[in-house]
Structures are given as structure tokens and as C-alpha cells.
């Protein structure tokens, strides 16, 4: 006697249901997605006890005729695809033709539908996969599906259902999420006879986001729109300073489907690179439109994860465009219309371009004797050497100027900017501030420096507002961009040490250092293994002269040990640039003259920089005269 038997249809359906119907939330998801596919613009969901006892989804979509209604609850019955080609270009939420059959196999199921009000409606009831009722019935155009006693015939699954609150929470969040992708549709959720969500139809996407997450959220967000032939997207992203400690405010829709797409997420994070503080995450609500054949949604039973064909391109589109938009968006708050180098879409030609392709640069040429000595001399005075405005770094300009001329421009600029007494920071003299008229005349800045607070913050006057700038963080960003520019244009200068500095490293750090020896050298550090755990530092970036080099190297190694696999090299270089910038910038607590402060503020105005330090801390805030008037009760 054979031991192997073909399973009954009912049993097959029950087993298959396990994949699609995990919990009340998955039932709601499948039913609501069907309603969306039916073209409805009103979808009403009613649940009892988190959907464990009762789920009803009512829509005003196209409905089904009698034949379709009967087929709808069969397995592998769908109106949405019919060929291989269709499977490659899915534009509906469903396509497998198994959701209704799966749900009906593990519940008491009732389908009532009408596709023509003249003809009237039709109702079918199924219990645990067995049809037990079918009849004509009066019903308006649309469909209603009612599920009672989910998993009544699969007790093991019933046990795995979570508490009412957990199940309700999942359904609530799902409706909110889904509604973002469909601002044209009205969604209503009623739980235990209480209306908990009621979002009107015909909203804009931005209004819908506000509706779902509260009006205040829009203060934290920046509208984005990007179009190119391969894909377009629009939505809202948070200002870097408004990031949150959790990732739960991140929503991506591809062709209206709510999905997780790692390439898009990673691309967006790249765009925020050096703008986010540690363990902080951006908020984003992004709707992507792309040719459906570029996206495979058939990779996950619940269709929540997708695979994209051109992952690299998508990643690059997002990282570049988001970086550009963030810079433009944050600068516009403070410097209206100062960003002449940005492209229309907010992306930038220079500093924000993807440098990864250049990462195999040859080590910077060793500075010539004269170069080294010039640098040595000037490094002492380096605090306020203004880097050139970004426009002079564009490829066009650079191409038209021979390297030697750029250098001589830099040097001239340097000399002009440097007070002749400079050299030792302690010698910075505190000159009498310029009379107001003088400052205004000389400077074309939009901020006039008023003074320094606690030797830490620069106070300046902007248009109808008081501006406060964190001197260290602001200078750090200026330095960081300058170092990065010099590195990629191979003009970052390093200096040999007459007496090498010895450093001891734990074996794992020593290993890491040796592994990246070439990259350290590209960044200006020549470090030799001396024997045992000892290393000798023979050459360092010029900007780090007189700094605690072993400490800086150890800090970089510490960070490097925590990097993930992707983007390792770029992350390493950024870390090095950050450290050099941090250690060569003015410190908090350092007293500055008005000229020095004005020079720094002017650079912020003229250079097209992000308004946060390379670790993501914002360095500029404002208080409007209106706010002051309110606090002084001049206006109520
Ligand atoms: N609310 C509805 N309004 C109109 N037709 C519906 C509705 N719900 C289901 N249908 C019809 O029933 C068919 C079967 O639905 P079912 O959810 O089982 O499969 P599907 O949506 O085609 O694919 P998937 O299993 O991926 O969801 C659908 O293809 C559709 O034609
Ligand atoms: Mg479906």
C-alpha cells in the first residue's frame, strides 16, 4: 500500500493560507489591496477585537458579476494577469490569485458584490473553504467581504495571534501607511464601533502626510521632487537637524505600492552622509514612479519587499539628488538665493558628486621642500584661511586654470586674509571692532557680526533675525569640504616629520592599519610597522602639525572597526577628513576678533556648504525679531 497521497483541495488551501494569512492584519491587507485594485475611492474597514473576531472591508469599486464572484474564491484565479509578460510588468497590488481562497480556507467568509445596480448583487458564504451559501441580494455597486472567526479551523494558528492591541496596532499602522500612497481614496477604520481613522479623499500627498502624522510634522520636512527619464519621485524628507532616533518614519512607495527597498533606503542615507548625528535617522515619505518592468514584486509572499533591476543606478540617483536637495533646502532657510552653483533640481556639480569612483587615487605627491616649508609656516596661522568659493572648484574653472595658477591664487588669497601677527593662536589680537558703517561697506555678507557669546557662539544680525553660529562646528564644515576637495584634486598637502612619532597599537588595530596602509598614505599619513605593537609615524597631513597624532589615528581606527561592509573605503576617507577638520578648526572656548568672526561668517555665505558639521550637528540657528517681540510682549 502506498504511503503517499495527493492532498485534498481543502487541505492544500489551508496549507497555502499559512503563507498569505499570517494574522488579522494580513487579511485586512489583502482585502484592502483588492479594493484598491477595484478602482474604489472609498474603502471602509470595520474590525472587532483587533480583527480576531470580525473584519469587514467595504468598497465602492467595480464589483464582480456572478461568474467572477464564484471564481474569485478559487485558488489561482485572478483577473489581473494572464501571461508571463504581465508578470514582468505588474501594476496592480495583487496578481497571484490566491488571497481570497486562502482567507476563505481559514475563516467564516462572506462575499457580497454588485457590478451593475440594475442587475443587483450576489452573495457567497464559505466556511473553512467549503461553500455553503450563494444567492442574489440587493447591494449597491462595489464589494464587501466579511471575515468572522479567523483561524477557527486551525487552532494552532489561533493560539499564535497576539493581543487585541497588537493586532489592532498593526492594522491601524497599515491603513495609515497605505493611505499615503493613495491620497485620492477615502479610508475609514472603525474598531469596536469607534471610528479611529477617517481620511477624506482627494488630498495632495503633502496634505495626506500632515493628516496622518499631524500638522507639526511638516515643519520638520522639506518637499522634494525629482524627475529623470529612468524614474521620478516626489515626497517629503526631514531636515537633517530634525532626524529621530527611530526608523519608523520612513515610508517608500514604488508605483503606489508600500515597499521596503534597501537600495532606495541606502541611497537616501548616502544623501544625508555627514549630516546625521550618530544613531539618528531621517524621516522620509517618498513616492517613486518607475517602469513596472524595472521592479520585481514577486519576491516576497506578502509583496512587501521588492527587487530592482538597476540597483546601482537607483542608489546613485537617490544619493545625489537627496544630498543636493538637503543642501539647498537647509541653506534657503538662512541664505535666500545665495546658491548659484546648484542645478535646478538641487543637485550640485562639485562637492556632492559621488567620489567613490575616484577612490583609487594615487597618493598625494610628496610636497617639495619649498612647499613643505611654506605650509609649515602657514599652518600655524591656518584658522581663517578662506577656501575659494565653490564656484572656483567646478571642473570648468579648474580646467581653464593651470594647477600652478590655482596654487598661486590660493597663496595670494591666504596672504591677504592672514593678519601678519598671526602664527601662534595665542597671538590673535583683539582689534577694536570696525565701526558699523565700515563693516557694512566692506562686507557683502548677509550677516553682520555682533559679537561672541561665551567664546563659543558667534552672534550676527541677519534680515529681521538674530543668527547664532557654533564657531567650531561651522569652521569644521568649512575645513572638511576644503580637505575633501583637496584630496580629490590631489592637492592635499602632507609634511614629513623630522623625528618620527612612535605609537603603540593593540594587535587588531595594528592589523587594520596595515590592511589600509595605502589608503592612509593617500590621506597623507605614512606609518611604518616598527616591530611588535609599535608603529612609527613618519608623515602627516600638514593641517595636523602640532596635534596629538597618535590619538587622532586611534580615534579613526576605532570608528573604522565599526564600519559595515558597504562603502567602507569612502567611509574611511570621510572619517579621516572629519578628524583632520575637527582637529584643525577653531575650538569652542577660543576668543575671536570681529574680523575673524566676520571672515568665517562670510565664508558660510559665499561657500555652498551644508549647514551642519561633518558629524551632523547643526551649526546655525536663528531667532526672528517676531519671536523676540513676542517674548518681550511687544506683540501678543
Ligand atoms: N474588492 C474587490 N472588487 C472587485 N473585484 C475583486 C475584489 N476582490 C477580489 N476581486 C476579484 O477577485 C480576484 C481574486 O482576488 P485575490 O485577492 O484572491 O487575488 P488577486 O488579487 O488577483 O491576487 P493576490 O492573491 O496577489 O491578491 C481578483 O483578481 C479580482 O478580480
Ligand atoms: Mg488580491
Characterization of this structure:
By secondary structure, the protein is an alpha+beta fold. It folds into 4 domains: 9-199, 2-Layer Sandwich (Heat Shock Protein 90); 205-332, Ribosomal Protein S5, domain 2, CATH 3.30.230; 356-364 and 372-416 and 437-483 and 591-631, MutL, C-terminal domain, dimerisation subdomain (formyl-coa transferase, domain 3, 2-Layer Sandwich); 494-583, Ribosomal Protein S8, Chain: A, domain 1. The chain is 37% helix and 21% strand. The strands form 5 sheets. An 8-stranded mixed sheet has the order 5-4-3-6-2-1-7-8, covered by helices on one side. A hairpin with a 5-residue loop joins β1 and β2 (54-59). α1 (9-20) crosses α5 (99-105), α9 packs parallel to α10 and α18 (549-561) packs antiparallel against α19 (568-583). The chain binds adenosine-5'-triphosphate and magnesium ion. Adenosine-5'-triphosphate binds at residues 30, 34-35, 38, 59, 61-64, 72, 77-80, 94-101, 143.
**CATH architectural name of the largest domain:** 2-Layer Sandwich
Please work out how many helical segments DSSP would assign. 21
Number of domains: 4
- Helix fraction, binned, reads 25-40%
Overall pLDDT confidence? 80
Distinct small-molecule ligands in the complex: adenosine-5'-triphosphate, magnesium ion
CATH superfamily of the largest domain: Histidine kinase-like ATPase, C-terminal domain
Shape designation: elongated
Distance between the termini: 92 Å
Q: Please describe the biggest sheet, giving its number of strands, its sense, and whether it closes into a barrel.
A: 8 strands, mixed
* Residue fraction in strands: 15-25%
**Strand order in the sheet with the most strands:** 5-4-3-6-2-1-7-8
Which regions are unreliable across 5 or more consecutive residues at pLDDT < 50?
Answer: 338-444
The overall strand count is 22
Pairing-aware structural class of the strands and helices? alpha+beta
CATH topology descriptor of the largest domain: Heat Shock Protein 90
Main CATH class of the largest domain: Alpha Beta
The value of Rg in angstroms is: 32 Å
Amino acid at each position: 500500500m502506498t504511503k503517499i497521497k495527493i492532498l485534498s483541495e481543502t487541505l492544500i488551501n489551508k496549507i497555502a493560507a499559512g503563507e498569505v494569512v499570517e494574522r488579522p492584519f494580513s487579511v485586512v491587507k489583502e482585502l484592502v489591496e483588492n479594493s484598491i485594485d477595484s478602482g474604489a475611492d472609498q474603502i471602509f474597514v470595520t474590525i472587532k477585537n483587533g480583527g480576531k473576531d470580525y473584519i469587514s472591508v467595504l468598497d465602492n469599486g467595480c464589483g464582480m458579476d456572478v461568474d467572477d464572484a464564484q471564481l474569485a474564491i478559487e485558488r489561482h484565479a485572478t483577473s489581473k494577469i494572464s501571461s508571463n509578460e504581465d508578470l514582468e510588468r505588474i501594476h496592480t497590488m495583487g496578481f497571484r490569485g490566491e488571497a481570497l481562497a486562502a482567507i476563505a480556507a481559514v475563516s467564516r467568509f462572506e462575499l457580497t458584490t454588485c457590478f451593475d445596480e440594475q442587475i443587483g448583487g450576489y452573495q457567497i458564504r464559505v466556511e473553512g473553504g467549503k461553500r455553503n451559501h450563494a444567492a442574489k441580494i440587493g447591494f449597491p455597486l462595489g464589494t464587501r467581504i466579511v471575515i468572522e472567526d479567523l483561524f477557527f479551523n486551525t487552532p494552532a494558528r489561533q493560539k499564535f495571534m497576539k493581543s487585541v492591541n497588537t493586532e489592532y496596532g498593526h492594522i491601524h499602522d497599515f491603513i495609515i501607511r497605505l493611505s499615503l500612497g493613495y491620497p485620492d481614496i477615502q479610508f475609514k477604520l472603525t474598531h469596536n464601533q469607534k471610528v479611529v481613522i477617517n481620511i477624506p479623499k482627494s488630498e495632495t500627498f503633502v496634505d495626506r502626510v500632515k493628516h496622518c502624522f499631524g500638522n507639526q510634522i511638516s515643519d520638520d520636512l522639506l518637499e522634494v521632487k525629482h524627475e529623470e527619464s529612468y524614474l521620478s519621485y516626489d515626497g517629503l524628507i526631514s531636515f537633517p537637524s530634525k532626524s529621530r532616533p527611530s526608523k519608523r518614519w520612513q515610508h517608500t512607495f514604488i508605483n503606489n505600492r508600500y515597499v521596503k527597498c534597501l537600495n532606495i533606503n541606502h541611497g537616501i542615507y548616502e544623501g544625508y552622509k555627514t549630516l546625521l548625528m550618530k544613531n539618528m535617522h531621517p524621516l522620509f515619505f517618498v513616492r517613486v514612479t518607475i517602469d513596472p518592468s524595472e521592479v520585481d514584486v514577486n519576491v516576497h509572499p506578502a509583496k512587501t519587499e521588492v527587487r530592482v533591476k538597476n540597483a546601482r543606478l537607483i542608489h546613485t540617483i537617490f544619493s545625489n539628488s537627496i544630498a543636493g536637495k538637503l543642501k539647498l533646502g537647509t541653506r534657503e532657510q538662512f541664505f535666500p538665493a545665495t546658491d548659484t552653483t546648484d542645478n535646478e533640481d538641487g543637485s550640485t556639480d562639485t562637492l556632492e558628486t559621488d567620489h567613490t569612483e575616484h577612490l583609487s587615487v594615487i597618493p598625494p605627491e610628496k610636497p617639495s621642500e619649498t612647499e613643505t616649508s611654506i605650509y609649515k609656516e602657514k599652518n600655524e596661522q591656518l584658522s581663517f584661511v578662506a577656501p575659494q568659493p565653490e564656484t572656483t572648484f567646478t571642473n570648468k574653472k579648474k580646467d581653464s586654470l593651470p594647477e600652478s595658477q590655482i596654487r598661486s591664487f590660493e597663496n595670494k588669497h591666504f596672504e591677504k586674509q592672514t593678519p601678519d601677527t598671526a602664527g601662534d593662536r595665542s597671538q590673535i589680537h583683539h582689534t577694536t571692532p570696525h565701526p558699523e558703517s565700515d563693516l557694512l561697506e566692506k562686507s557683502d555678507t548677509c550677516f553682520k557680526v555682533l559679537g561672541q557669546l561665551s567664546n563659543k557662539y558667534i552672534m550676527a544680525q541677519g534680515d529681521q533675525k538674530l543668527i547664532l553660529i557654533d564657531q567650531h562646528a561651522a569652521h569644521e564644515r568649512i575645513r572638511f569640504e576644503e580637505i575633501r576637495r583637496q584630496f580629490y584634486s590631489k592637492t592635499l598637502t602632507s609634511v614629513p616629520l623630522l623625528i618620527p612619532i612612535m605609537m603603540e597599537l593593540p594587535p587588531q588595530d595594528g592589523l587594520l592599519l596595515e590592511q589600509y596602509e595605502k589608503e592612509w598614505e593617500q590621506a597623507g599619513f605614512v606609518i611604518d610597522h616598527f616591530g611588535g605593537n609599535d608603529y612609527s609615524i613618519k608623515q602627516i597631513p600638514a593641517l595636523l602639525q602640532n596635534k596629538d597624532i597618535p590619538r587622532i589615528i586611534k580615534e579613526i581606527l576605532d570608528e573604522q572597526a565599526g564600519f559595515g561592509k558597504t562603502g567602507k573605503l569612502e567611509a574611511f576617507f570621510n572619517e579621516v577628513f572629519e578628524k583632520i577638520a575637527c582637529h584643525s578648526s577653531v575650538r569652542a572656548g577660543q576668543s575671536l576678533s570681529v574680523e575673524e568672526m566676520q571672515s568665517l561668517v562670510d565664508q558660510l555665505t559665499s561657500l555652498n556648504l551644508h549647514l551642519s558639521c561633518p558629524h551632523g550637528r547643526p551649526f546655525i540657528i536663528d531667532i526672528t525679531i517676531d519671536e523676540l517681540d513676542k517674548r518681550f510682549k511687544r506683540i501678543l
